[in-house]
Amino acid sequence: MIIVTGGAGFIGSAVIWKLNEAGREDILVVDHLGTSDKWKNLVNRRYLDYMHKKVFLDRLLNGEIDNIEAIIHMGACSSTTENDADYLMENNYHYSRRLAQYAVYRNIRFINASSAATYGDGSRGFSDDAESLDQLVPLNMYGYSKQLFDVWARRHNFLDRLVSLKFFNVFGPNEYHKGDMRSVVVKAFAQVGAEGTIRLFKSYRPEYEDGGQQRDFVYVKDCAGIISWLLENQDVTGLYNIGTGRARTWNDLAKAVFSAMDMSPRIEYIDMPEILRDRYQYFTEAEMKRLSGRGCPVAFTGLEDAVADYVKNYLQATDPYL
After folding, report:
1. What residue spans of the chain are helical by DSSP H?
2. DSSP label at 118?
3. pLDDT tens-digit profile of 130-171?
4. Is residue 279 over pLDDT 80?
5. What are phi and psi of 100, to 5 degrees?
6. Model confidence over 208-236: pLDDT tens digits?
7. I want to staple 116 with a disulfide (CB 3.0 to 4.6 A). Which of 105, 168, 249, 291 is the partner?
8. What are the catalytic residues?
9. Of all residues in the chain, what percent carry a pLDDT higher than 70?
């Protein structure tokens, strides 16, 4: 049996989609559905059972769940604006530690979701070499909670017995429940549908034109493909970036949305809130040589092709879910 925590969430449900494609249905979905619409991410999926995250941890540690092949731990609070530090410490750090210890001590494959938010403003680079962890300064508590797990795993020599993945700017189907944390692609699609235009932040650094700020945008289907490969290649352990390795501009992203909708670009540049100006990331780009060096064969979908697939086959479809 494969356990997917955060299985009703964005990346977690995409992982289940990929497992279903491979014929796997022996999946335990762990999550906290609450009153959100993320339950809709499970409607098209096939799995054994669903369990609330608190019930799951108690039952797991009490020895009530067995025959576990792997734990894919995508469950976490992913809001970069969450300011309840105690909640993030417990939910993102301590919970992850307990699961990792359980898996490692029983030789169960453990794949953890870290984040590129650990890189802070990017001024210290984007190396996923574990030796560079101490140099990183996250800009928000979410990034810090992810950083703490990676540092803890290295300190206890767990990085050679598990995998922790630093996801960059992931977008794609099943992110609809995320509110303000949805990708710019889905927000831009809605803006174009309502107003015929896309609004992007102005640049406040002379070396970047308005909308010229750059991100490493990665399609969620490709992320799921990498996790599927990691399940099959259990000798691959450690800390790895998950991005395309190629930064693209917000202007590129906006134009890709217009193209997918068969419309001419109309982009409006708006003032960036002052609270963001001193901690805004102007450039992110994953260093991918470590993962490619381990033989990972996943070929990342180009930005324009990924946006076109997302828009035409999901956002404009009757059923937008994987």
Report:
1. 10-21, 53-61, 85-88, 95-105, 141-155, 184-195, 220-232, 250-260, 274-277, 289-293, 303-310
2. G
3. 999 999 999 899 999 999 999 999 999 999 999 999 999 999
4. no
5. -60, -45
6. 999 999 999 999 999 999 999 999 999 99
7. 168
8. 142, 178
9. 100
Q: What is the pLDDT of residues 175-205, one digit of tens each?
A: 999 999 999 999 999 999 999 999 999 999 9
Length of the chain measured in residues: 322
Taking 3-state DSSP, the helix, strand and coil percentages for the chain, each rounded to the nearest 5, stand at 40, 15, 40
For residue 74, give Cα distances in angstroms to 41, 71, 124, 195, 223.
14, 9, 26, 35, 12
Beta strands at 248-249 and 214-215: parallel, antiparallel or unpaired: antiparallel
**Angle at alpha carbon of residue 118, lines to 129 and 110, rounded to 5°:** 65
Confidence (pTM) = 0.96
Under DSSP, the state recorded for 76 is S
Lookup: tokens for 208? 């970047």
In angstroms, the CA 313 to CA 322 distance is 10
Residue 36 CA to residue 209 CA, distance in Å, equals: 38
